[in-house]
Amino acid sequence: MIEKVMQKLVRKERVNQGRTYVPSVAAIDSQSIKKSAFVSKETGIDGGKHINGRKRHLAVDSLGLPIAICVSAADVHD
Predict the structure, then answer these.
(1) Which pTM was predicted?
(2) What confidence tens digit (pLDDT) does each residue in 48-68 have?
(3) Domain count along the chain
């Protein structure tokens, strides 16, 4: 449900900015985050950054609006 709300808001803002509602270009990046003491699900160690925790992946359009968001264990390869 939250995905549909985000998609509708992004489409509405793209139209307000004078763009087509569907993006044609995306930028993808990820960031490793240290885990909190109470987090135990889907954690791992990012070997390149030596961080024990989780990794967030983002895809944004040319306006910087989110297209996709995913959270995984830090040891998942990009």
Answers:
(1) 0.73
(2) 767 778 888 999 999 999 999
(3) 1
Residues 6+ apart with CB under 8 A from 21: 11, 14, 15
Q: Is 16 exposed, middle or buried (0-12, 13-18, 19+ CB in 10 A)?
A: exposed
Give the whole-angstrom CA distance, residue 64 versus residue 55. 19
Q: Exposed, middle or buried: residue 11 (CB in 10 Å: 0-12, 13-18, 19+)? A: middle
Q: Please state the φ and ψ torsions of residue 76, each to the nearest 5 degrees.
A: -75, 130
Whether residue 11 is contained in a domain is answered as no
44 is a domain residue: yes
